[in-house]
Specification:
The protein has a 5-stranded antiparallel sheet with strand order 4-3-2-1-5. The protein is α+β, with helices and mostly antiparallel strands. The model has no long low-confidence stretch (mean pLDDT about 90).
Length: about 80
């Protein structure tokens, strides 16, 4: 995918439902290209694993994940808005 300087911060639902803050580089055909910082090193994920970033939501997700509260974590993931 072509690289762009226009990136948007997103929350990725990683392995084990861990929330990870990354940058969305592009969105195409139901997939989001994300990168940690250097957009030349990116991966493509299904759009259903990438969510709109808000500081409050990310904080709640991280706290629930780190505490091991699976029910609360699931509730926060259900409230998250898929990146579009």
């Amino acid at each position: 995918m072509p690289k762009s300087e226009n990136v948007t911060q997103v929350i990725v639902r990683a392995y084990g439902d861990e929330p990870v803050c990354l940058n969305a580089v592009s969105l195409k055909n139901g997939r989001v290209e994300v990168a940690k910082g250097d957009t030349s090193k990116s991966i493509s994920l299904p759009q259903s694993f990438v969510y709109r970033f808000t500081p409050d939501l990310f904080k709640k997700l991280r706290e629930a994940y780190q505490s091991g509260d699976v029910a609360e974590l699931g509730q926060y993931w259900r409230s998250a808005e898929v990146y579009a």
